Amino acid sequence: MAALIAQRLVQALIVLVVVSVLAFVLSTQIGDPVASILGLQATPADRLELRTRLGLDEPWPVQYFAFLRRVLTGELGVSYITQIPVAELIVTRLPATLELAGVALLLSLGLGLPIGIYAAVNRGHWSADAVLALSVVGVSIPTFVIAILLIFVFSVTLGWLPSFGRGQVVQVGWWSTGLLTDSGRRALLMPALALAISQVALVARLVRAEMLQVLRTDYIRFARARGIAPRVITLSLALRNTLIPVITVSGIQLGFLFAFAVVAEAVFQWPGIGLLFLQALGSTDVPVISAILLLTAAFFVAVNLVIDLLYALVDPRLRSGGMTGRADRA
């Protein structure tokens, strides 16, 4: 297990270094931060002074290693536009995105698991095929279209849910949450549902395929021969073994939802990391852009590391196999 952890940590470090290079290169190509800060009316002397103060007159390798040194020391810099430390901005916005991604994951599993189980148990029945087809329709529609449709139905037509914002939030230490207030929960429902719908078909089809394989195994046939109730066989014996690959997909989904929540956050004006990233892009706020790209990569790496360790705990054969089994099954 120690060797596995060390191997995964080295791989994670390599990924983060590559992402840091890409983040730095991207941040140097999206525009001129000096023009965004000073505007078009600034004098050449003011532009030169600011460029020197920000270190933008240095060669790119010097700028990159200065950027990397700040990251390794926990100094993410200061926003060019707001003059607020980037770490403070991220800490303020991070709870909103994590709550949105977490609730969206729960909704996708809550909808996808029953659909997949039903489709596997009733294989070949028209109702099972209809449910799967309906789930595919959901994944075929872009997230922003789903978000707009939800706003039209539940906000404009019915007036049940707010169309933007996070609602009332409360502070629990450094964490700001809307889950403890009624308006916060109502504001969270539509953005989370808009993100979850695109993932339901993935979960449903995975659960269906895995459960069909498990239902064909000898121990399931033996359980049926012993007269065990079909519901017990499905929900206890078969589902337990089906959940192993679902763990992998759930982790990947969580990383995907965290990274691509930007669409829902933009439509619903959800004050999270995604909306902050869009605002930073619009104003060429290089420190914020670079920090968010690194944070997203670190989140993906951490999630995949946890998944690998969970797999090793669930299946001891993988502890000495370099986790190749997980890649084959995924």
SSE diagram, text form:
Elements: H1 2-29, H2 33-38, H3 44-53, H4 60-72, H5 86-121, H6 126-140, H7 143-157, E1 170-172, E2 175-177, H8 182-215, H9 218-225, H10 230-260, H11 262-268, H12 273-282, H13 286-314, H14 324-329
Antiparallel strand pairs: 1-2
Helix pairs in contact: 1-13, 5-6, 5-8, 5-10, 5-13, 6-8, 7-8, 7-11, 8-10, 10-13, 11-12, 12-13
What does this structure look like?
By secondary structure, the chain is mainly α. The protein folds into two domains: 1-81 and 283-330, no CATH class; 86-273, MetI-like fold, CATH 1.10.3720. It is built from 14 helices and two strands, in the order αααααααββααααααα. The protein has helices at residues 2-29, 33-38, 44-53, 60-72, 86-121, 126-140, 143-157, 182-215, 218-225, 230-260, 262-268, 273-282, 286-314, 324-329; strands spanning 170-172, 175-177. A two-stranded antiparallel sheet has the order 1-2. Strand 1 (170-172) and strand 2 (175-177) form a beta hairpin. Helix 5 packs across helix 8 (182-215), helix 6 (126-140) crosses helix 8 (182-215) and helix 8 (182-215) crosses helix 10. The longest helix has 36 residues, at 86-121. It is globular. The chain starts with a helix and ends with a helix. Residues 322-330 have low confidence and may be disordered.
